[in-house]
Write a structure and sequence with these properties.
This protein is of the alpha/beta class. The chain has seven helices and 15 strands. The protein has one domain: Metallo-beta-lactamase, Chain A, CATH 3.60.15.
Length: 294
């Protein structure tokens, strides 16, 4: 079986890895988890990171057919619409994005958002198969971090895992977001790690494990099973749930949580402009005491 060509693009501002994946035979490509450059303090968006991916695709003579999202990210805004506008690619995500939309639509009063997932071009089912050129791709539904997390197994040996698992010297994703669940996450990870030992796993994030002085984003099933401190062989489900629950209770919210969720559940579309022509992102206010918001 032909193996995909893969080029990684690391965004240090959000610790996110995006990928350009292509079939060397047909020069057909997909972009996985592209990042929109977002300045939280200024409220400005830029496409430099996505443009670098597009430039690489042009240099390789590739036709980009897909933008593949592993889930609705809470730590960066997606550049999927920009990639689509420049290439005509379709935007795909797991079908359980509908559950995430149902959770967050009332939180942000996102009345413009289609609840059926219709902001995306395609909703993938667990086990669904499609192709990138001649490369077969299998979709794996791996909930736990969010209800809609999926991985893309491209060819026989390469899996883009999203946030389900991190590098084998670092650990696993949090499971405390709305709709997340530590027990479900453990079972998803065990499914992922039941793949052949030599399967290459491509991370969506890296934060440098203690003692490692460089960013890294490619691991194997064998390395994860032998070394991952959270889920290596011998770690029980109950121990993982207890550990993950206690750890998550101490974690702060991601810096870009509020803008990311609002944009990403709309497939990268910003809320519609108000009467003054300006688009706004909402910040729900929760008061610890009633007098705080009088």
């Amino acid at each position: 079986m032909t193996r995909p060509e893969i080029r990684a693009f690391f965004d240090e501002a959000t610790n996110t890895v995006s990928y350009l994946v292509w079939d060397p035979t047909t020069r057909t490509a997909a972009v996985v988890d592209p990042v929109l450059d977002w300045d939280q303090k200024a409220g400005t968006a830029d496409t430099s990171s996505a443009d670098a991916i597009l430039a690489a695709a042009r240099a390789e003579g590739l036709r980009v057919d897909w933008v593949l999202e592993t889930h609705a990210h809470a730590d960066h805004l997606t550049a999927a619409p920009w990639i689509k506008a420049k290439t005509g690619a379709r935007i795909g995500i797991g079908e359980h994005i509908r559950e995430v939309q149902r959770i967050f639509r009332p939180v942000f009063a996102a009345e413009d958002m289609r609840e059926d997932g219709g902001d995306f071009d395609h909703l993938f089912r667990d086990g669904e198969r499609f192709t990138i050129g001649t490369l077969p791709v299998e979709v794996m539904h791996l909930p736990g971090h969010t209800p809609a997390c999926i991985a893309y197994r491209v060819g026989a040996d390469d899996v883009f895992v999203g946030d389900t698992i991190f590098m084998h010297d670092y650990g696993t994703a949090r499971a405390d977001f709305p709709g997340g669940d530590a027990r479900t996450l453990y079972r998803s990870i065990r499914r992922l790690l039941s793949l052949p030992p030599t399967t290459r796993l491509w991370m969506c994030h890296d934060y440098k494990a203690p003692g490692r002085d460089h960013f890294a984003w490619q691991s194997t099933v064998a390395e994860q099973r032998a070394q991952n401190p959270h889920v290596k062989d011998g770690q029980t489900e109950e121990a993982f749930v207890a550990f993950r629950t206690a750890r998550d209770a101490k974690l702060s919210a991601p810096t870009l949580l509020l803008p990311s969720i609002q944009v990403n559940i709309r497939a990268g579309r910003f809320p519609p402009a108000e009467a003054n022509g300006v688009r706004y992102l909402r910040v729900p206010v929760t008061a610890k005491n009633a007098a705080a918001i009088l």
